[in-house]
Amino acid sequence: MFWCILWVLWYLKTARGDMNLTAQCILTRDEMESRRLEAARDLLAGISQSAVARKFGVSRTTVSRWNKALAGRGVESLRKRRAPGRPCRLSAAQLEQVRELFAAGPRRLGLGADRWTTLRLATAIEMQLGVRYDPDHVGRIMHRLGLSSKTEPEAAFTVAAGGNLAYPASLYSPNTDLSVSEISPTVA
Known about the structure:
The protein is mostly helical and about 190 residues long. The protein is built from eight helices and two strands. Helix 3 packs across helix 4 (about 60-75). Mean pLDDT is about 80; it is low at about 15-25.
């Protein structure tokens, strides 16, 4: 058992070395750019691709790709580029109109409900602005605009006369007028 522990410690020391390893997690675009640029400095300083791959916790293929870009187009080729994807089909003014549509509610637009769904909002956007969106994408627009159709949950307790906590009225229990301490003396 002791030798097994020693072997594991030796392996961790020699296999990883004392290099600064990047944690294997999701990095932001800025962190990825920073990692590429730091790797470029190491490559330009003459450190081997294998050592750079170990240092940053990436594959040798990735470092080879970075090195090829560095040799061909320079350090600027390793900088982050604009995120791919189709630009928004709604202008800033139209997005503000979507916010106003949301605030007005679906019933006001003749959609026959009091609560927004992504399908109802997609229909309203198409009716009012002439732009068709998939309901799944409308959910992303709602998130970006900070819109939510969720209602607040009811409080578990209410404050009764005398400042005691009481359960809210219920159709299913005749004891709803009792305070928490009357229902369970150990809680109060």
